[in-house]
Amino acid sequence: MTTITKGLVPAARIERAILLVRNEKIILDQDLAELYGIETRVLVQAMKRNIDRFPLDFMFQLSEEEFSNLRSQIVRSSWGGRRTAPYVFTEQGVAMLSSVLHSPTAVQVNIEIMRAFVRLRRMLEKHADLALKLEAIERKYDQQFKVVFDAIREIMKPDPLPKRRQIGF
What we know:
Blueprint: H1 11-17, E1 18-21, E2 24-28, H2 29-36, H3 40-49, E3 59-61, H4 64-73, E4 87-90, H5 91-100, H6 104-156
Antiparallel strand pairs: 1-2, 2-4, 3-4
Helix pairs in contact: 2-3, 5-6
């Protein structure tokens, strides 16, 4: 790792910026701009000047509903604010930004962002493996514990009372 990338942007900061929208891992334009140390409008202008490099699977604009849902989940200052829904960039879109933003900082930040996406992908794969293993264990032990629970229920049944002769009428 070069000295430029080390400490440039904390990995945790990048990982917090990655969100899930439309089943895609994305980063908001304003978060990317902040990471690159530029204004959001500068990032959006650069993207729009090179729009042919950003197909819908690289970048898209949030719908008003998605934007409002996102606003309710993310705590940001209510002062000012944006008037239009943000653009969001997928992993491929972030990679494409490195060809649009030419500063050395942008290139180094892009490298760190790509590493964060890879770490996130690996972590999700591990969790998927764990979920599958847990499901297999549950299936296996559900059958074994069914026998135990059936035995406990049998023990808990009250003993049948012996029939008594009826006295009286």
